[in-house]
Design a protein that fits this description.
This protein has 388 residues and is mainly α. It has a domain of 127 residues. Helix content is 71%, strand content 0%. The protein is elongated and about 90 Å long. The termini are far apart.
Length: 388
């Protein structure tokens, strides 16, 4: 394979010296992309003015292989001003040719071709849809207002979700309001994509996201976005959700967000969560309620785990007693172990007095951490076990 590359590269050099346009064009359209790029560079240096026209003609060939070769050549050559010509040749092309042509537009796209690319986002062919998305990202900063407008008017689920991804990757702040509206869409794929886009936009969108905490139908998504932001200015608003929201999914998301902020300001509220009977497991009084009870208990587990993690991250050693009690619950035990490890020796020794099985579990967790501190704690626990 290496030998073939060297020989072909040498031939490219010879064809360039002899100005053999025909041979270089053949190499341009070949399967080897690196060789094709070398051939394109040679043809550009030779100033082959009619090459782009020849490749465009190939797109209209009745032979599928010729159309693919023409598309591949255009994608490598990318002649200036060719976007419109390629755009007009896109109709009725087979998907593999179309995907190559979409990428051929490359940096030469304009507003018209970008709108055309947006139309391919709904393609059932994944290669075509992915190529359109990639090229819109490549050209998106230039056409940011247009992308926002397209997102607002779009109703197709696949296209609207793709446009949200593009806007998020480009961090188009001016699209914040449109994305917030997208989060209220009843179609989950659209709402999820809008949420992720706002996460990607980050801090510039946070002021508006905080206001969503007061909207019951939006508070869970708003909490999830704030989890990633780590913006400590919203701590009071998140505490309010924990204290007042009837939706356990929102409470869980708010606690998770606070866990990334590591603030002592949250300690009392989080300890109260662990001590509250409100988040204990329940049993169905009626078999028909089993699914609802299972869902409710799932969020109880998540809330308690997130609260323990948040307290551990905040270094809230005053919560050790409440966390030690959580060692008895299979769903919260692992989170409790990691929190107590963060609190250090006093909390661990206190836990050992309450739960002798804790010794093996905490040693296993400490071995995974692999730090000098964890090694010292393991020795301490081993000595404690010998003294029993």
């Amino acid at each position: 394979m290496i030998l073939f590359g060297k020989i072909t590269a040498e031939k490219i050099g010879k064809w360039k010296e002899s100005k053999d346009i025909k041979q270089l064009t053949g190499a341009l359209c070949g399967e080897d992309e690196n060789i094709g790029i070398m051939a394109a560079s040679a043809l550009i240096e030779l100033g082959s003015n009619d090459l782009a026209a020849g490749l465009l003609d190939m797109l209209h060939s009745p032979k599928p292989s010729s159309r693919i070769e023409g598309a591949r050549g255009l994608s490598r050559l990318k002649p200036p001003g060719i976007a419109e010509a390629i755009s007009s040749a896109m109709d009725d092309q087979q998907p593999d040719v179309l995907a190559i042509l979409i990428r051929a537009i490359g940096t030469h796209a304009n507003e018209k071709t970008c709108r055309q690319l947006a139309g391919f986002l709904s393609s059932t062919n994944t290669a075509v849809a992915a190529a359109a998305e990639d090229m819109l990202i490549l050209n998106g900063q230039t056409f940011a207002p247009m992308l926002t407008a397209l997102y607002t008017e779009q109703n197709n689920v696949q296209s609207k979700a793709a446009l949200a991804r593009i806007i998020g990757k480009l961090r188009i702040v001016s699209a914040t309001d449109a994305l917030i509206h997208g989060m209220s869409d009843q179609r989950k794929e659209i709402a999820d994509a809008a949420e992720q886009a706002l996460i990607n936009i980050g801090k510039p969108a946070m002021e508006k996201i905080v206001t969503l905490l007061k909207q019951p139908e939006m508070e869970t998504r708003a909490c999830r976005i704030l989890t990633v932001s780590g913006d400590i200015t919203c701590i009071d608003s998140l505490l309010q959700v924990i204290q007042t929201s009837p939706r356990k999914e929102s409470v869980s998301a708010a606690i998770c967000a606070l866990g990334n902020m590591a603030s002592n300001k949250t300690t009392d509220t989080l300890i109260a969560v662990l001590q509250s009977d409100k988040y204990n497991d329940t049993k169905p009084g009626d078999p028909s309620q089993q699914e609802q009870v299972n869902n409710d208990n799932h969020w109880n587990h998540e809330i308690r785990k997130n609260a323990i993690t948040a307290l551990g991250n905040a270094g809230a050693t005053q919560s050790a007693d409440a966390i030690i009690k959580s060692l008895k619950n299979a769903y919260t035990r692992e989170a409790a172990i990691h929190a107590l490890i963060k609190f250090g020796e006093p909390a661990i020794m206190k836990a050992l007095d309450k739960d002798e099985w804790f010794a093996d579990d905490v040693c296993n967790a400490l071995r995974k951490i692999k730090s000098p501190e964890s090694g010292s704690l393991i020795k301490l626990i081993e000595e404690w076990k010998k003294s029993r």
